[in-house]
Amino acid sequence: MTDLGKNYIAGDWVAGVAEVENLNPSDLTDSVGMFAQASGDQLDAALDAATAAQKEWAAYGLERKQAVLNAIGTEMMARAEELGTLLSREEGKPLAEGKGEVYRAGQFFTYYAAECLRQIGENADSVRDGVEIDVRREPVGVVAIVSPWNFPTATASWKIAPALCYGNAVIWKPANITPASAVALTEIISRQDIPKGLFNLVMGAGREIGQRLVESPKVHAISFTGSLDVGKGIAASAIQNLTKVQMEMGSKNALAVMDDADLELAVGLALGGAFGGTGQKCTASSRLIVHEAVHDAFVEKLVASTQAFKVGHALEAGTQMGPVVSAQQLAENMAYVDLGKSEGAELMCGGARLDMPHDGYYMSPGVFVNTTNDMRINREEMFAPLTSVIKVGSYDEALATVNDTNFGLTSGIVTQSLARATHFRRNANTGVVTVNLPTAGTDYHVPFGGCKDSSYGSREQGKAAAEFYTRVKTAYISAGVPS
Ligand code: NDP
Q1: What is the pLDDT of residues 240-260, one digit of tens each?
Q2: What's the CA-to-centroid distance between 167 and ligand 1, angstroms?
Q3: 440 CB under 6 A from ligand 1?
Q4: What is the CATH number assigned to the segment(s) 253-435?
Q5: DSSP string of 399-417, one letter each residue
């Protein structure tokens, strides 16, 4: 049974102890609905149900699990238009991005459906005569998934799909400002052939219900995406129970534009990388490190393209950038605009609140120039449609600047030199490196994650996810003496 707005606990849709209203950031007169906030008791019930259901699910045959994941992914892809519209309505990204996100989320499920059949261990001879060794992966147990609002469906899916694939139960705490996408995905999962309690949706404030979840000794692994400070707090809670933890947090991604770059390409990559998703991507190009030989021409083209970038209602045709997600995020963005100016950066365009036909959280995309890498706008994750140009005199200076950050998620170079591209790929201190491609936008069948303050724990996505969602068992078998 579908019951929009409720939590899904132990196989039932249940009302919470309170409700929050979900407003469309493109049009604050449009209410997406009221959404339940779970109580601590409800979370405890979800944990108990998950503990019991996990054993049943782990005992399902491989093809039965595969069929469940396939059905979820196939339905999401088929309903990408409808679910993408809901996502864009509550999060504010343009409809094409919302639809694309739901379709991609479906692909995570179909990918991991196939992975259900590819769980192949290792075997070896022992150093002891007559003994053989079998090494295989087992589920970790109950997994807590704490996800952010900026990719409300895709981020959750790249965690939920492998968690289920490898035989685990899930408690999902989505971001509290994008609950509709969470309920929609849960509704699809709830109709599958899964044990009651295997999958639970627990909505509510992160610092309350989320905190209680990550402190629970009944959770065996926590996968988190969000901010650095919350991530550090979660890691501190997890260690109390020695709970396995994996975190993807902030970033300060750089796109280096070299003197031999195709400038049209470079501007296109910078524009999409900086302002796609209203700049609210962990892979956003927030630092544009540009060789002095092409700096002025690049800035001129970038500013012209930025000024032409169409800001509007997420669901209106032609919109290239929607509103930011919330009043709080908008206020923080405006504070960064003021900070940048006070640090001496020159705002070439944008960075202003916009009055639109609909009352929403609109601002214009902004470009700072004359910035240095030690400015706070170039060191802190702004999560805003704001980008900074940093002028450099050489490739070596560009690479050093790319790496001069506490973060390390993605970086890119725009160059026609194979030597520089190769050197950059090997020496950029980021988990993802791109050449003549945007810093944002990754595939689903290969590892994703960063280094330094951007990520902690083992990689997500692709086969790499098995490391987190399983534990390894090494069995020694003596065949005995043949009779
Ligand atoms: P948070 O880190 O606050 O939230 C991420 C998730 O964690 C949400 O589900 C949140 O719930 C939950 N959460 C918050 N506090 C706790 C807690 N103590 N224990 C358990 N779970 C908790 O990020 P925000 O969404 O508030 O965004 C703030 C900033 O974080 C952004 O401006 C951006 O800089 C960064 N961010 C980075 C992302 C990335 O991909 N790199 C993604 C999202 C944010 P709730 O929604 O209820 O608060």
Answers
A1: 999 999 999 999 999 999 999
A2: 27
A3: no
A4: 3.40.309.10
A5: HHHHH-SS--SEEEEE-S-
Q: Is any atom of ligand 1 closer than 6 Å to the C-beta of 214?
A: yes
Mutate which of 146, 215, 243, 325 for ligand 1? The one with the most ligand atoms within 8 Å of its CB, which is 146
Find out whether 268 and 440 touch, Cβ atoms under 8 Å.
no
The CA distance from 258 to 293, in Å, is: 8
Whose Cα sits closest to atom 19 in ligand 1?
211
CATH architecture of residue range(s) 3-249+444-475? 3-Layer(aba) Sandwich (3.40)
Structure tokens at 185: 């995905």
Nearest CA to ligand 1 atom 45: 206
Q: Which atom of ligand 1 is nearest to the CA of 233?
A: 18
Q: Is the pLDDT of residue 483 over 90?
A: no
Rounded-to-integer distance, Cα 63 and Cα 165, Å: 11
* 232/457 Cα distance (integer angstroms): 12
155 lines ligand 1 (CB under 6 A): no
State mean pLDDT over 375-394: 98
Supply the pLDDT for residue 482.
65
CA of 95 to the centre of ligand 1 (A): 23
Give the integer Cα–Cα distance in Å for 150 and 331: 17
The pLDDT tens digits for 6-22 are 999 999 999 999 999 99
Per domain, the residue ranges of the chain are 3-249+444-475, 253-435
pTM: 0.97
Q: How far is CA 153 from CA 355, 420, 432, in A?
A: 29, 37, 21
- The Å distance, Cα 17 to ligand 1 centre, comes to 22
